[in-house]
Every structure is written in C-alpha cells, then in structure tokens.
Amino acid sequence: MTDSVIVAKELRKRYGNHTVALDGASFAVGRGRIVGLMGPNGAGKTTALKAILGLTPFEGQLDVLGRDPRRERDSLMQDVCFIADVAVLPKWLRVNDAIEYVAGVHPRFHSARADAVLARTEIRRRSKISELSKGMITQLHLALIMAIDAKLLVLDEPTLGLDLLYRRAFYEALLNDYFDHERTILVTTHQVEEVENLLTDVLFINHGRIVLDSAIDDLPGRFVQLIANGDACEAARRLEPIYEREVFGRTAFVFEGRDATELAALGEIRTPSVADLFVAKMAGGAS
Predict the structure, then answer these.
(1) Do residues 200 and 226 share a domain?
(2) For helices 111-118 and 95-105, what crossing angle results, to 10°?
(3) What is the Cα–Cα distance from 82 to 60, expressed in whole angstroms?
(4) CB neighbours of 97 closer than 8 A, spacing ≥ 6?
(5) Which of 82, 124, 154, 266 has the most Cβ atoms closer than 10 angstroms to its Cβ?
(6) Are 187 and 224 members of one domain?
(7) pLDDT per residue over 39-82, tens digit each?
(8) Statement: the pTM of the whole predicted model exceeds 0.85
(9) Is 287 part of any domain?
(10) Can you point out the beta strands (E) in the chain?
(11) Closest to 185 (Cα-Cα) out of 168, 169, 202
C-alpha cells in the first residue's frame, strides 16, 4: 500500500516459552483511513498496538509514520495520540487538571481547541470528574482528543465503559472530527456492529495472525452470503463456503471469491455485514 502510515511485516511476539501473541502478522494502514483492528480476547490486538506505540519489543519490520517504534518512540509519539477507555478518568480530577495534564505531556495539544469544544457543552473547567454525567465525560474525552493535532489517532476499546447512547455519540463526534482534520485512525473494539459504518478498512486478527485485511468498499465484491433454499444446502456445501449457520430455520452460508450469480439459483443472495464476516473469520474461514 502506497502512502501508508503503518507498514508491518512478519511481526512476531512471544511471552514466555508458550504464549504466541503475534505470529507473522503483516498489514498496512493507509493515510487518512479509519481502520478497525478486531479480534477476540487474546487474539493479539493489544500486543499489536503496543508494538505500534513502541511499548513492547518484537521481531519483524514495523514502520509507523516513517519511524521504527523500537528506536524512535519519543519522536514518534509527538505525532501520535493514544486513547484507551474513556470511562477511566480519575473521579477526583478536575476538568482543568485533565486539560493541563494532557497539555503537559503531548506537544501537539492545543488548550484553546479543547476550550472551544467544551464551550459547546455544559462542562466547566472547575468541575470534578465525579460531578459529570457519563455523557459529559464522553464530551470531555472528545475535547481532549480533538485538541491534539496528531497524525495518527490510536483508540483502544475507547467506549468500553459507556452505555449505548454515549458510545454512539462518541463515534459520531469522532467521525465529524475526522472529516474536519483528515486524521488516520486505528481503533480496536469488540463492538463490531457499532463501528462498521464508521470504518473505511478492517483488520481481523486471530491467534496472532491477520485473517482479513480489506477496505470496506471491497468486501461486497469479495464475499457473498447465501440464505439457502431448503433443498439446496448440500449443493451449497459443495461450493466450499467459509462459514455456515442456522438463521430462523434456514441455513446461511458465507462464501469468499464466489460469483453471486453462481449462487443465486440456490437461494437468497445478500451482502454479509462486517459482523457476519467477523464471526465467519473467527470460526476459521480461510482467506
């Protein structure tokens, strides 16, 4: 991929003698994209993020914004913003303290921009985090994120502690900020359904390996879902689906690399959702 912000080749990481966290993972993240890194617990997501952020040693080649995170982390982090769970801000902290802390640790933080975002809310700088509602905490975290002029924004399960309403508000505001500033965003989450309309690309990781690396726009031409007629299941299985499951008494198959017209005689043709593909790939569907 040309003009990539992240290029990873054959990343390997082992903990102790037995636990393999990354097993030859290779992928690229293009400039100005919103990429979802998804996988089950223990799949290698966190280790991949740590490698990208220069927080763990690893084998293989990794280029992030033209730098090797192992040797140039201090320089790299001037252009990177990393945000984890938005619900973990210390309750005793005041809003003003949070702004001053981030301003002190990130060279590209602009307090005036944070104030401009907060001015559209009911949040006051002297308020304690403990006095804020969940919605206000979400707004505060967004203000902190949007005030950082980072080339790469890394979000690790950013809405883990929030209710559905606030998770949606977070992602909607994040998307608006993306269009305003053309950032590159890498987000990990297990809430696949909530982010699939936000993403431009998906990276599925399982057992330390990338099992799907694709632009969202390319998925309909690559994958097809068949809701088979009752007498067509065996014929469908002979065409080697990557996954099948029961849906309201009928069998749904997911195929990769099959022409939809080839399958149309066997039942109803649909485009699988990102969530459907995630389940299929985690179940072992081949690339």
Answers:
(1) no
(2) 150
(3) 23
(4) none
(5) 154
(6) no
(7) 998 899 999 999 999 999 999 999 999 999 999 999 999 999 88
(8) yes
(9) no
(10) 4-15, 19-30, 34-38, 59-64, 80-83, 152-156, 184-188, 201-206, 209-215, 223-228, 243-247, 250-256, 267-270
(11) 202
